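Record now logged for everyone:
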Amino acid sequence: MKKLIRSISLVALFAAATTAGAMAQTVAKGDSSKVYGHHHRVGRDFGALKSTLTPDQKAMLKQNHEKQKAAHEAFTATLTADQKAIMQDKTLHGKDKMEKFRSSLTADQQKIMAANRETAQANRKAFMATLTDTQKAQLKTAFRNHRGGKEFAALKTTLTPDQKALLKQNREKQKAAHEAFKATLTADQKAILHDKSLHGKDKMEKLKGSLTADQQKLMAENRETRKANRKAFMATLSDEQKAQLKEAFKNGRHGQGVVTHRGDVQKS
């Protein structure tokens, strides 16, 4: 799914036409995925779109991804040690990192960046021309949800060390709950998860229908634990941080809950 998100993002947003763009997108992905499963929700939207693509559309998407990867590698090869250091500087975040990086680019690097951007725009236009109205609507929904990642990234830069530690601790608890629930799955239940003929809601409903009483109890316990963890984290936020989080969820929301592999129901 990560490969799909990266591929469609490169074609449809052309935000990663340069290394700077790709790096910014990576930061946004990482930040958003750490706050209550936003990345999971966006991935589900892209997954729904992928299931409708024709073989020719998939081939075009793959070809565009390969072109973008080659352009990225060619650009990366031009970077100096100082420029790479900027990219790896953990004291810089988001816009500040991008601005410092762009100001360090030579005229030739800027020319490559512009050429990559133009190529990505052309690829995007060609791909969009193949989409049906239904597919365009799905893509619009997916990117509307994707935009919430920027607000999550902005929120993360304001978190205190204690808040970051609590968020990390909650993430580790959720991972442990996921592993515990996964360990209870039977071969048939795992087969449902790997069934490529099922997608989104249909797959989740079939999985839910196969759960034993003990698995349902575990799922409920995981859900309650996650709610308690969220409540504890929210209690630490300032009014300004709460406003940022509200804006992020507004931009990244979707209307339905979904059963996750962690054994809980994830809702926006």
Q: What stands out?
A: The first helix runs from residue 2 to 12.
